[in-house]
Amino acid sequence: MENLDPPGTVHSSVLGLVDQNGHSKSSEKIEDRPDITYGIDDVPPWYLCIFMALQHYLTMIGAIVSIPFILTPALCMREDDPARGHIISTMIFVTAIVTFIQNTFGCRLPIVQGGTISFLVPTLAILHLPQWQCPAEEQMNNMTSEERTELWQVRMRELSGAIAVSALVQVFIGVFGVVGVLLKYVTPLTIVPTVSLVGLSLFENAAEAASKHWGISVSTIIMLTVFSQCLSEVKVPGINYSKEEGFKIVWFNLFKLFPVLLTIMIMWGICGLLTLTEALPKGHPARTDVKLRILEDSSWFRVPYPGQWGTPTVSLSGVLGMLAGVLACTVESISYYPTTSKMCGAPPPPVHAINRGIAIEGLGTVLAGLWGSGNGTNTFGENVGAIGVTKVGSRRVIQYACALMLLQGIINKFGAVFIIIPEPVVGGIFCVMFGMIAAFGLSALQYVDLNSSRNLYIIGFSMFFSLVLPKWMVHNADAIRTGSDIVDSILTVLLSTSILVGGMLGCLLDNLIPGTPEERGLVAWGEQMKLVSEPTVHGEYNTFDFPVGMATLRRWKWTSYIPFMPTYHPKKKN
User: Which residue range is the domain that position 430 belongs to?
Assistant: First the structure.
């Protein structure tokens, strides 16, 4: 039954536990809770759910469309290949499935699980191996259509197998409750190089796209900066409807909600005007008609399916390389869970919810690999930010968003639309987006003592050397010769993956070089990432419980020993 309470009402379920009669068991005052319109367990009216789900969908699209612009050229695909649109549709289709599972049975937080930049770094390292590098342009142009299709699909199959198999490690971490052990060694000085290098390692890709037309790229950067930083608090009028008041004018933060989408639309329109007036020469990457064939050749409806590019292949070098992306995503998602929970007015996520969330994220990446999206899944920070802006943390809204994503993943023309965005516009977005990813990684420095020469040494060396070695490896892909092609490929991929090199250096140095817990940031980090393991008892409801079957689980006492079960309660050591 729909919850028709007016916006601004904070329900008792949001405040923690409620008994079977619906009475709140929390003693905290509502004033102490975040200012939220709809909490995690609230169900807004269906028409509001649709509108708010559209906001999350548009926020997600702004983050996900950038990935194929880097992935597809590395796969040796033609610029006007309609399959580029198929890849975007596949990514969104898988996002819908994984997000619904995560919201309903996983960590149960209103987060979106979708494609991530973190997997692009190991992906490019794998595709830079001699056997996967693209042939000369002249040779590709002489290929038949079938040969050109097989050229990129064999690479996609290699990536798909590596992604799916490597993600089983993430499933293992969640199912067997290894998160607590992982956090003992994955310290802030490990996170800083691992996450920040995701953005820094892709600077060449951003430069290549932006250099197609620096005027348009710089204009994109300026516009995105103005919208997201200068106009974020500026409200614009919109129309709202409620049963009590009917239609009325409301003011909302348009630029804070959709800075990326607005920038893309406006700059796309400007490129369209430059194309119409012939200000840009024929074939210029900034023209809006360069890739129009993709839209024309794409079918209206297409349902993505597992193995659509052929049976995934598995190589040890690919799997080990992709592990870097898996571990980076694991740490990033763990850090998002407490933040999201707080934004929704929910209690801190218990350890069983975090374990389950990581396991489902791993399962989602397995599905993404099997479906052939060429990428994994991770928590979208952009959608977490949208919760803070809109004050709407309802799980039901995200479930509605899943329906929109599923529909868009099937309507193939929509995926094709995003592929034809002019490349210089995408380059400008890359410059800002990759910079923000790097900054997110650097934000973990707030926990450590930056006056410590020990910490400065670890940060500086782990980040700088992780740019030097992979860069050299890319230009000397055949430098390692052990006598075994398999070992050569494994070492080449591992040493070419900057986030793996940086993460390993940061982890080893921080755990080997002597330092106090306060100096290393372990005290503040441990407080931030504190894992709660108190289970709920019979007669009580908790937002992190399964939506069905809790009574049965409580009768089965053995479930209290399973790390991902809501009844999990590890015995504390004396």
Answer: 46-133+148-525
